[in-house]
């Protein structure tokens, strides 16, 4: 993150003779030495005048001229020293920790630090920090607080990436109680690898390795039915009560005694859905007006729909029916849902290992079941790696790009019902990778990272996994395009097993390998017995497809139905693995063997990973 600094020298003498200002220039030099990518965007000298200082502070903070503004001078006991008063008048929030740090560390240098009245605080998005006027003291104070500046600015600007990385580092160091550095050293010169040490595996072999390695989860949990869609039942569901629990009318009409047959009848009362049974049993010749879903009154054994009746008489005010003619011979049980006719009590409604669909949830609700026991899912964490990455909420510096993999992966998993946690972005340095991975292992069991797995000296993910976490790399290179450097690893962290997929950083490679390995692994872990691949369907190719690479290529296709209801497939355009647009409308993958082509009109099986709309 680049920071904009400001220096406001407060000195009546220097405002008249700027060449006498020593502290300002020395501080500037020190800032640029420490924050090489940052700049000092504001420099000014004002007199020791309360109004003049306030005016400058207001100007800088209102116009976001800088992120951190150091005032230099005017913090002592002299009558003219009013910088702290001006600062207090401007800031919204005080930052006494900064003041405390400066004073306590300065006391180790000189007792005179006792006389400092320095104030620090925040106004809008700017931190204001009062330094003493002597150049030595100003530079010293800067050194005392410089370690907090990056994080302070990131927090104020809500710079997600910087904050997450810092938190991960702090958390990691805190947990270990020591700032243990990564054991990995970046390879230089002749030690850089020029050939991958990992054998190139076929996709099918890699998948078998994944299925054999991931342990099948036995844990269960009780969750509210509202959250149960796509989850796997851990036990049979037995109906605690019948549905319906009372004989209910299927029609709007009249509850009758079938043996009374057709003819004129007295309408005793009316009953609607939701009404309880509060009336005595029907006697010969009596009927009850009834609505669909209402409980059948006692004594009634059939319902005659209103269309099969004629109104004969109403009350004087015309509101209530008195007499109706039943036009058809009713049959016993006609238009009645008997008790348990939808679901019988004490029967197995759903068997364990069923995947819960929305209608399952409705049936559970019908049975009065509000919680359901399901197979526990691993906690999933997503990491992006790359020093070039910035959250799309942040501002880009030259050479940086927005992180798209993390949000894509989280959304992709959510699409298939899996919740995943954002575990931040790691820089391509051993320490940052170690800290971010470690933080993810603290809270997650199934980690998906992207980037940093290919051949450069900054592709350090595998090394950090092995050297810092003792991971076993099950595979590190696959014969596929995109997705060649895909990594699958397992490790034990604080006595718990962790599964790690480190996917290639190219956005398409990351998506395709998620569909081919990550999702299958998650589904297999949860329900290995009923595991099924995404469906294969035959499609007609709208155009020829050529693969010039030696690796089998997983071409992204859009499958649609033509006017004759045939399934047609067309490519989603340029298939380069950086072009995420080739994924956006894709609903299928076609595997084209290395160095071969498929002709227009040929029928090929594709793997459908989402619906055909
Ligand atoms: N000498 C070789 N170089 C490369 C090989 C190889 O076999 N030999 N393989 C290539 C292939 S194939 C792929 S795929 C990539 C994979 O690289 P990494 O996994 O190491 O990923 P990075 O180098 O970190 O990044 C690659 C590319 O993707 C962009 N990226 C990374 N993360 C994100 C993200 N979260 N959001 C958006 N974009 C991201 C990154 O900026 C790079 O442009 O390696 C080839 N090289
Ligand atoms: O395998 Mo890389 O994933 O071609 O782009
Ligand atoms: Mg790389």
UniProtKB/TrEMBL annotation:
It catalyses: adenylyl-molybdopterin + molybdate = Mo-molybdopterin + AMP + H(+); molybdopterin + ATP + H(+) = adenylyl-molybdopterin + diphosphate. CDD domains: MoeA, MogA_MoaB. Pathway: Cofactor biosynthesis; molybdopterin biosynthesis. InterPro entries: MoaB/Mog-like_dom_sf, MoaB/Mog_dom, MoCF_biosynth_CS, MoeA-like, MoeA_C_domain_IV, MoeA_C_domain_IV_sf, MoeA_linker/N, MoeA_linker/N_sf. Residues 6-152, 381-524 form the MoaB/Mog domain. One of its GO terms (cellular component) is cytosol. Keywords: Magnesium, Metal-binding, Molybdenum, Molybdenum cofactor biosynthesis, Transferase. Its cofactor is Mg(2+). This is MoaB/Mog domain-containing protein. In the N-terminal section; belongs to the MoaB/Mog family. Belongs to the MoeA family. Signal peptide: none annotated. Gene3D superfamilies: MoaB/Mog-like domain, MoeA, C-terminal, domain IV, Molybdopterin biosynthesis moea protein, domain 2, Molybdopterin biosynthesis moea protein, domain 3. One of its GO terms (biological process) is postsynaptic neurotransmitter receptor diffusion trapping. Pfam families: MoCF_biosynth, MoeA_C, MoeA_N. Catalyzes two steps in the biosynthesis of the molybdenum cofactor. In the first step, molybdopterin is adenylated. Subsequently, molybdate is inserted into adenylated molybdopterin and AMP is released. The lineage of its organism: Eukaryota, Metazoa, Ecdysozoa, Arthropoda, Hexapoda. One of its GO terms (molecular function) is metal ion binding.
């Amino acid at each position: 993150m680049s920071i904009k600094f400001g220096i406001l020298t407060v000195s009546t003498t220097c405002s008249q003779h700027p060449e006498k200002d020593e502290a300002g220039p020395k501080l500037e030099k020190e800032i640029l030495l420490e924050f090489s990518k940052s700049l000092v965007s504001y420099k000014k000298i004002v007199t020791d005048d309360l109004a003049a200082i306030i005016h400058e502070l207001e100007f800088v903070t209102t116009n976001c001229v800088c992120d951190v503004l150091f005032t230099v001078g005017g913090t002592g006991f002299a009558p003219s020293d009013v910088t702290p008063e001006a600062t207090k008048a401007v800031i919204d929030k005080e930052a006494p920790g900064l003041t405390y740090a400066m004073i306590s560390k300065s006391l180790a240098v000189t007792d005179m630090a006792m006389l400092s009245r320095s104030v620090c605080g925040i106004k809008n998005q700017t931190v204001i920090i009062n330094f003493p006027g002597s150049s030595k003291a100003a530079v010293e104070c800067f050194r005392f607080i410089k370690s907090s500046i990056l994080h302070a600015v990131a927090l104020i600007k809500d710079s997600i990436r910087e904050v997450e990385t810092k938190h991960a580092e702090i958390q990691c160091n805190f947990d270990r109680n020591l700032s243990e550095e990564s054991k990995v050293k970046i390879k230089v010169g002749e030690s850089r690898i020029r050939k991958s040490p990992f054998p190139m595996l076929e996709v099918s072999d890699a998948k078998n390795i994944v299925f054999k390695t991931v342990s099948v989860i036995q844990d269960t949990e009780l969750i509210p039915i509202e959250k149960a869609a796509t989850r796997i039942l851990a036990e049979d569901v037995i109906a605690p009560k019948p549905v319906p629990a009372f004989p209910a009318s299927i029609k709007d009409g009249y509850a009758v005694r079938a043996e009374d047959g057709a003819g004129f009848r007295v309408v005793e009362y009316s009953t609607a859905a939701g009404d309880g049974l509060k009336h005595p049993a029907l006697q010969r010749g009596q009927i009850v007006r009834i609505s669909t879903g209402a409980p059948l009154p006692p004594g009634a054994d059939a319902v005659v729909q209103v269309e099969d009746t004629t109104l004969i008489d109403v009350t004087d005010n015309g509101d209530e029916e008195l007499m109706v003619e039943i036009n058809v011979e009713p049959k016993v049980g006609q238009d009645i849902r008997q008790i348990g006719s939808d679901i019988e009590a004490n029967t197995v409604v759903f068997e364990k290992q069923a995947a819960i669909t929305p209608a399952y949830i409705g049936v559970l609700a019908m049975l009065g079941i509000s919680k359901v026991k399901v197979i526990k899912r691993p906690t999933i964490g997503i990491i992006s790696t790359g020093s070039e990455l910035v959250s799309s909420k942040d501002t880009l510096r030259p050479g940086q790009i927005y992180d798209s993999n993390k949000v894509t992966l989280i959304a992709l998993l959510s699409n298939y019902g899996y919740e995943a946690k954002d575990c931040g972005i790691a820089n391509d340095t051993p320490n940052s990778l170690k800290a971010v991975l470690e933080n993810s292992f603290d809270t997650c069991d199934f980690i998906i990272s992207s980037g940093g797995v290919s051949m450069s000296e900054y592709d350090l993910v595998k090394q950090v996994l092995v050297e810092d976490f003792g991971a076993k790399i099950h595979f590190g290179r696959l014969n596929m395009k995109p997705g060649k450097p895909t990594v699958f690893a397992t490790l034990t962290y604080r006595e718990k097993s962790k599964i790690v997929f480190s996917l290639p950083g190219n956005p398409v490679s990351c998506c395709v390998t998620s569909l081919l390995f990550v999702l299958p692994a998650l589904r297999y872990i949860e329900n290995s017995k009923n595991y099924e691949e995404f469906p294969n369907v035959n499609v007609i190719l709208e155009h020829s497809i050529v693969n010039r690479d030696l690796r089998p290529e997983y071409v992204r296709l859009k499958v649609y139905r033509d006017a004759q209801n045939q399934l047609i497939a067309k490519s989603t355009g340029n298939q380069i693995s950086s072009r995420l647009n080739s994924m956006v409308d894709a609903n299928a993958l076609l595997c084209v063997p290395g160095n071969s082509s498929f002709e227009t009109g040929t029928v090929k099986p594709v793997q459908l990973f989402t619906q055909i709309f």
